[in-house]
Amino acid sequence: MPSKTPHTNGTDPVGNGVNGAKDVEMNDDAPASLKGGKGKKAKEGDEEMTVVVPPSKGQKLAGLGKKDGEGDVAMDGEEAVEEDDGAVKVDPVTKAVADIKGSFPLLERAVMLFDARFSLRALRSISSIRKRLTPDILAQVITETYASKGPAAESLLYAIGRENATFAKPSSTEMEIDSEAKANKAGKKEPKEIIPEIEIFLGILIQIYYLDNKTNQKGADVSQYLAERIHTLNRRTLDSLSARVYFYYSLFSEQMAPLPPSPSSPVVSIRPALLSALRTAVLRKDVDTQSTIIVLLLRNYLSTSHISQADLLVSHTRLPDGASNNQVARYLYYLGRIRAIQLRYTEAHEHFTAATRKAPSSPSAAGFSQSATKLLLVVKLLMGDIPERATFRDQSMERALQPYLQLVQAVRVGLLGEFETTIKQYGETFRRDGTYTLILRLRQNVIRTGIRMMSLSYSRISLRDICIRLKLESEESAEYIVAKAIRDGVIEASLDREKGFMKSKEVGDVYATREPGEAFHDRIQACLALHDESVKAMRFPMNQHRLELKNAQEAREREREMAKEIQDGDLDEDDLGGEFEGM
Question: Element (H or E) spanning 111, and its range?
């Protein structure tokens, strides 16, 4: 008779007494539900079924690293070592070599498809391996890339001081031939040819290594060799790489003693090479090298204060339409500096505004945005405008623009004493930024601003009070400054010389003037220019239009043939199957 007490969960073992580490054999005595599965009874002639219970996670971890009975060996290789927490250690040298070699397929694909985007992707990968470059790593990459010691390999090894590096022999598995028949047909396996793009890419890595370690003389020598090598190759797939070579070549010259603006600086001696490379790039229609060298020449002339030569270069050259956005931003920045020095503030303001808009938004390019913004603020003050307060509240520029905020406040109020105090306090900062000479021109603007503030505050004010407030020397100088401000249109007032006072006119509605319309027109022009540049920057598959024209022509020919057959009576509507319409 069954027990009426309910079953409760206890600590007693289950009926069969089996744990998770043993196999359970199901004999014929076992219940049919276990033998047959899914509630079906097992047949009499069926074999015995064994249920294998998998071991627990702790047993698996305990068994790792030991050789079992079937000959499985734990993974204890030399390249990767497994730690206790499961992480895998990778040799940093092997990882760096693999990362450098990973860019070679991109260069080969760029040559095969004649597409510079793959070369740019290879150049962008340099930032991830830049800090790990050493002569030993570069020598290992060179010896493993080149099969034998050729002229290119010797030059690269000599550049890093590893002339005696041994080349790795190819393994026997690489040289084996599957069968004798294949050997008779193919013969000996020729080594893979290394394209010149890989050689120049390795040369750029050597340039970067010397630049980071401040070995400027060796870097300049390597750059000169690479420039001559590129000139002899004359390959369009080297355009992106050659632009980067000349960029580092110019940086090495700027950092070598004597530094600019000394007339004996190496930046002066590099100008003939850059001009020759610019002429060659224009003849070869090398857009990347052409735009890069134009920017480098402008930077070179400005570093030694040769403004007339820089202006002459701008008047005789034109930045190519296909130049990258970064080169366009740099070109506008240097062009704005030239125009600001030439007192052409309106053009300088346009160039600096465009440069700040085109500046990259990445944190690594914050320095360029700060430099362009500083010059833009000074040019705005020279034009008589006051920059917006939101410019100084930007998180990435708040600290760098602190001296310029005090300068703007002094100019806005028109206090000449505070303006001179700010110049004395932050004079070194302004000299380092290259804005000191432009800021010195603001003294007259401070006086003009003070006069304009007084014309807005007072309907009538004597010249003596103007002289006291602006701290001028005499009333005659105050009279001259007020007269010039009235003539230039800074203020709308009249000067009474007999009674010695300035009378301001009533201020009208600013929206009744042309100023809002001009500001709106400038914004529309900027938006239209951005739209045009975006359209020009669009990429389309090569020769895709030819394929579409071919398909359209074939379709028209088929329609003509079918129409002719219908007219001849060879086809009717039933033969067409309802697909031919429109006749």
Answer: helix 104-113
